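Reopening: structure tokens for the alpha-D-ribofuranose complex, inputs below.
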Amino acid sequence: MCPDRAPLIAVLGSVNMDLVTTTERRPAPGETVLGTGFRLVPGGKGANQAIAAARSSGHTVEFLGAVGDDLFAAELRRVLADSGVGTGLLRTVAGPSGVAAIVVDGSGENSIIVVGGANATLTTLTAAELDVIAKADILLCQLEIPVPTVAAAARHARANGTMVMLNPSPAQPLPDELWANVDIAVVNSGEAEQLGGTLDKVTHLVITQGAAGATYRGPGGESQVPSPRVEVVDTTGAGDTFTGALAAAWHRGPERALAWASTAGALATTKLGASSSIPARADIAAALAGEQ
Ligand code: RIB
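Re-run output (same inputs, fresh job):
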């Protein structure tokens, strides 16, 4: 971390338009149920995490990704920029933007289907993107873009002294070479189970456990932080909010960063949608102060 400037966080990942349907009960296969509402909300794990990093800190956050040339693209760009995320390198490519069909039930739980669209075109990195990764303090990635691109970015980050935080979601088997370049892995308990022993090699491991909080395991030992009690409306984007806020606060040390991120993630569950529910720095600080 460069001591005489604010941290620079590069987020490489997806940006999607979320098609959010709310319903009391999710339909069984072959069944039709009546919904209670519908909204278009910008999302995507990459964009959500970039927005959370920027809103929770005011640090410099640069988003590396792609939108299509469709009707959703302008709104996806606008939400990132209005949240304080740098979009100077966000590509526009021919074809549709990424979309996610999301169903949220009465208990706030969701099911999501993502169609990659423009995100799937990120098969190589430009010189300008590589330059931002090399200059960043943290590179933050997920797995909604092609894995070889994530691996190339992590390799470049490691070669240039940039710390790599990976949220391996959606969980899938990854090349050893990618894991070797990851400094911090952030997973939920389901992903931790799926990835199993692979995670043993990572220096810093963070496991989120929803309402139960989050655990940390690293060179300094193990710790657990609780999650504040909140009224859950929709859990969509809560893990992304946790991860983005964690990346932005990492320089304060794992324990403080986890407490900050847990509060941010919990607040994100109190509103509908992904980017629409990501809290600002002042709200996280107030909620954290209220807990102590
Ligand atoms: O993690 C939540 C996100 O997953 C949604 O915003 C959706 O776009 C999918 O990427």
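The pocket of alpha-D-ribofuranose is lined by residues 14, 16, 18, 43-45, 48, 100, 112, 114, 144, 236-237, 239-240, 274 (CB under 6 Å). Residues 9-14+44-96+119-290 form a domain with the UDP-N-acetylmuramoyl-L-alanine:D-glutamate ligase fold (CATH 3.40.1190.20). Marking as resolved unless the reporter disagrees.
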